[in-house]
Request: fold
Amino acid sequence: MKHVRSTIFVIFGLVSGIGAVSAANASVPEPFQGFDADSKYTIKYDDLTAVLRTVVVDVGRSTREKAAPTQAKTGTRMKVSVKRSTVNEANRFYFETFEGHEDARQYLLNIQMSLEQIPSEAPLKYFSRDEQLAYWLNLYNVTVLNEIIKVYPKRNLKKMLLGKKSIFDKKLLTVAGIPLSLNDIQFTILRQNYNNDPLIIYGLYQGNIGGPNIRRKAYTGADVYRSLKNNAMEFINSNRGTYSKDESTFRVSSLYDRNRVFFPNFNADLSKHLLVFLEEPERSELQRASKLKADITDWTVTDLGGSHRNLGGAFADNNAALLDSVKGTTPADGGGTLGAAVGYGSSTLASKGKPMSRFDPELLTQLQELNVKRERTNVENATVTMEELGQVDPEKAEPDPDSKKEDNN
Reply:
């Protein structure tokens, strides 16, 4: 039986990686070759940033603590099944805002379509490599968001992301007249144009908790590498990125297994990469381990809680508890994080979202845990700044708690 299961796993792994392998062996289309190292041209993403700042919840760095066991709601024996080691990790996107609101959905889709048109209006070869990288990351991520919005409130995204019907293999985009899949962008254009740099994978949002973070700001050419390093630091030092199993085995995310092309000598290359960012005590545990095991997964959608449907509880939602869970999380500049995402802030787009009473007590408990974790992280880093990773230049402004350790790398 073990042999049969192993065979099935191997076959499924090969099927799920066919699109990536095919894209990796393809050549970069001519319109996406070349760059101008001295270019001063930039691409603005104010519309995308406005959406992200409104509907992305930055949950802060992982504490590597497991969440408390879930409890069944009053009036039912049923409860939501979660992975306790990762459920409180990864930034969240407020997919609930777009559920049933065609104008909000169309707004985000329009951003995707406008990004598709950029190379037709201004050939990418006139931009710097950094500017091009930011462009591809933003186009990739907004496309993933739109695809998930189509199927939301689907909770488990595994079948959507892997296998023959993976959204990554579909030709969802047409750029400069060339049909492209998300795998074409990642494994052909980005991998080849950027010398197989593994930092790229941390800028490609997958929609699930087990993947890299969605950020509260669009990527820009000016800070794209700083942003990627911060995303790498956050992911690698979280339970969904790495986890020490025992003295001989060091567990890593299955994301790395799906991106083996970036690590030709998998164990050696991945270990070297991880050690650039990994903090103690996991750093020492990786150095002692004799093998890596890429089996950490969490396919749960990174929503704020709308996929946690009511399971028959007798009590109405407690709005006061929700307000308490997000109290004090809005920074002085009014940008907001939890407060803006849940309370909708002043954004026209967000104001079309669903009311707070939609959330059930299970979500309220999770929000409270996230907020406690955020507050603890801020205290430990001696700051109350709630800005996203990499948004502040430490030499020109107050230190960002989630990026202050980047300067050591």
Notes: The chain has a mean pLDDT of 77.
